[in-house]
Design a protein that fits this description.
Blueprint (H helix, E strand, L loop, with lengths): L1 H11 L19 E2 L4 E2 L1 H13 L5 E3 L1 H24 L3 H4 L10 H11 L2 H6 L2 H8 L3 H20 L7 H13 L5 H14 L4 E3 L1 H13 L5 E2 L4 E3 L7 H9 L9 H29 L3 H22 L15 H10 L2 H18 L10 H17 L7 H24 L6 H31 L6 H7 L5 H9 L1 H21 L3 H10 L27 H21 L4 H9 L7 H10 L18 H17 L6 H17 L10 H18 L13
Length: 687
């Protein structure tokens, strides 16, 4: 719940738009950008209207009208030719000179009888008379010129509004011919008759063209991040309407991004809660590890938020964010799976935080970069032996960061300068090594303040130079050797069932630290000395033996050893019975209480403590064998595990029967390897 509230308020500014109290025709006090992408419907309609109005009317040229007017023209000249054939000139044809030729008026009347009514109604007698009296050669030449002028005029189409200009164009073509003025005048009159409208308005084509034009108009969009008005510019009516459209003048639009953010934060927090629950059940984690998840999440998200305040679209500083710090810490302090889950959550939050305060948008580039960088950190942080492993992981991260950045460059349509590429590459390298350095710096804080045990801390505790281990080696060397053997067995068994092998090994190193208080009372340290238990009562011996787990726990606590190791030391005997001293006392005193010869506990609470409890007894028992064989080893291991189960020592540990079966086989295999048969080398005989 705390994380949900934190995530919500730290990302609220990225989805909540600022509201401006501004008036028309005032000057903008700052550059205002659109917070959303939306269509300006009013501007789209205006643009569509202008586009439709610009579409010209569509006309179809009627071939029928064209052919009709040309046929009328041909008819006039053909009728005149036919009339001349019927009434030839006697002088020209050498016929009877006494025949009286037709007068001009008679020819016109005769011509009107054979011409179509449309022609006779529109052509005057003077035009027909001029054509009839025109020499045949000139008439034929005039016919050719007239038909060419008419065809050229009709081809371009003649509309009602252009009829006068079409007739004028035809007349100009005739006027520029080589014919004399009298003939061109007659032909112009004839062209005036022949040229009519042949281009007819097509309503259907015009409507279709306007529809196509309207559909081709792209919607006028106001893009998220687009500048609506710059600082100092006047808030015109158009600008004011755009600000109103994108929701910069009222809070009405702000509620929806907030609701969406709330849903997303709840979803992400549910994933975190599920992972916390899994960690608690899987590793019996306490509040310290849960607190570390919360604290690491706060640190990582806060780092992203701080950098986002200085990030612009031209200066992409999110490439330098050490976002991998969180997963590096979580992998070491908790578990690799938790690191992977939280890497996805941090990447998602990063895509919101670096959206340049544009509600409704996510910076996918930042999200992908953060995710790949974190996954690289998880993968490259392997075989942690010291803090140098974190720096090695940083080197691997830097390679992945560089490749990711270059892929963004090559996928982009924009052209990047070489200098920009080098700068972004430097950002990627810087982010990787900043993550490594911050991890190294923060790790001791979590180890010390929250008391969380990391692999690096365990490796430090396993060093032979550790003061307590030096004390154990010098004061109780037998116990030291015993602890090393128990550590080998415990680590192998834990790794076989998926428990923390490193924790088991280090816990085994320190589990018998209490024996350094009275080292000679423990048989492994009794080298060439008399057993002190032979001269004291069984009850006193039991009290000395029983006290060593708790003396060790107290000593470990004094040296500020992590709680997990202290728990192993205090739990590794559980509430088992000191059978040897119990039965020794029982031989003398029948009323002896069994509880006086049992360890007070607690019983092992974790898999690691339970396995050390088993391996501790197994190692001591096998070491006591004079001739260990595979059969004897298997029998002893099985009997000890069976005894621990029947005595209820494993009841409070999370070990299952399947785990115990696998532990038994693993311990047997390890011991067989240690106590394998050796060749008996022959002794050299003395001469």
């Amino acid at each position: 719940m705390l994380l949900a509230v934190f995530f919500f308020f730290i990302t609220l500014g990225n989805v909540h738009t600022e509201i401006y109290n501004i008036e028309r025709f005032a000057n903008a006090t700052e550059t205002i950008r659109s917070p959303i992408t939306i269509e300006n419907e009013q501007e789209t309609q205006r643009k569509t209207r202008e586009t439709v109005q610009s579409v010209e009317d569509r006309f179809n040229i009627s071939e029928e009208i064209t052919e009709e007017r040309l046929s009328y023209t041909n008819e006039v000249f053909e009728a005149i030719s036919k009339l001349e054939e019927e009434n030839p000139n006697p002088e020209e044809n050498n016929e009877d000179a006494t025949r009286v030729p037709l007068t001009s008026q008679e020819k016109v009347q005769r011509l009107k009888q054979i011409l179509s009514d449309e022609i006779t109604e529109e052509l005057s007698d003077s035009v027909l008379s001029s054509l009839v009296n025109m020499p045949q050669a000139q008439r034929e030449k005039g016919k050719e010129v007239l038909l060419e002028a008419l065809k050229a005029t009709f081809e371009t189409g003649v509309r009602t509004e252009s009829l006068a200009s079409a007739r004028s164009n035809a007349k100009e073509i005739i006027a520029y011919s080589s014919l004399n003025e009298d003939i061109t005048k007659v032909l112009s009159e004839l062209a005036n008759f022949a040229v009519v409208e042949n281009s007819i308005y097509d309503a259907e084509s015009t409507s279709e063209a306007r529809k196509n034009a309207a559909s081709s108009v792209e919607p006028v969009m106001i893009r998220a991040g687009e500048v609506i008005v710059r600082e100092g510019q006047t808030i015109t009516n158009e600008v004011y309407e755009e600000m109103k459209l994108v929701g910069l003048l009222n809070n009405e639009r702000n509620i929806y991004p907030i609701i969406g953010l709330g849903f997303l934060v709840i979803l992400l927090s549910c994933f975190v809660a599920y992972e916390m629950n899994w960690v608690t059940k899987k590793f019996h984690a306490d509040k310290r590890k849960i607190a570390s998840i919360v604290l690491i999440s706060v640190i990582v998200v806060s780092l992203m938020k701080i950098v986002s305040l200085y990030t612009t679209q031209s200066n992409q500083l999110f490439f330098v964010v050490p976002v991998a710090t969180g997963v590096l810490l979580i992998k070491q302090l908790i578990h690799e799976r938790s690191a992977i889950v939280l890497s996805v959550i941090y990447a998602t939050l990063g895509s919101i935080i670096f959206n340049y305060q544009i509600p409704g948008s996510l910076n996918i580039e930042a999200g992908i970069y953060f995710l790949l960088s974190q996954l690289a950190a998880i993968i490259f942080l392997m075989n942690v032996k010291d803090r140098l492993a974190i720096l090695k992981a940083g080197a691997g991260m830097s390679i992945v960061n560089i490749v990711t950045l270059l892929s963004f460059v090559f996928l982009s349509f924009e052209k990047y300068a070489i200098g920009d590429i080098f700068i972004q590459t430097a950002y990627g390298i810087g982010a990787a090594f900043l993550s490594a350095v911050l991890t190294i710096g923060l790790l001791p804080f979590f180890e010390t303040v929250l008391g969380i045990l990391s692999d690096i801390k365990l490796l430090q505790l396993s060093s032979p130079n550790q003061p307590l281990l030096k004390k154990l080696l010098t004061e109780a060397p037998g116990t030291y050797h015993h602890s090393i053997m128990v550590a080998n067995l415990s680590e192998t068994a834990c790794e076989a069932i998926g428990a923390n092998g490193l924790l088991a090994r280090v816990g085994a190193y320190y589990h018998d630290m209490g024996k350094t208080v009275r080292p000679h009372y423990f048989i492994e340290n009794q080298l060439a000395i008399k057993n002190p238990h032979d001269v004291i009562s069984p009850k006193q011996s039991a009290e000395i033996i029983i006290s060593h787990p708790y003396d060790g726990a107290e000593m470990l606590q004094k040296y500020r050893i992590p709680k997990e190791i202290i728990d192993i030391a205090s739990q590794h005997h559980g509430t088992t019975l000191l059978k040897y001293f119990y039965y020794k006392e029982k031989d003398k005193n029948k009323d002896v209480k069994e509880s006086d010869y049992r360890y007070p506990g607690p019983k092992p609470q974790t898999k690691e403590a339970a396995i050390i409890c088993i391996c501790d007894s197994v190692e001591a028992a096998v070491r006591s064998l004079k001739e260990p064989t595979e059969e004897k080893i298997e029998e002893i291991v099985a009997s000890i595990i069976r005894d621990r189960m029947t005595d209820g020592q494993l009841d409070e540990s999370p070990l299952t029967l399947q785990d115990l079966n696998l532990v038994q086989r693993t311990i047997c295999d390890t011991l067989k390897g240690i106590f394998h048969s050796r060749i008996q080398y022959p002794m050299k005989e003395a001469k």
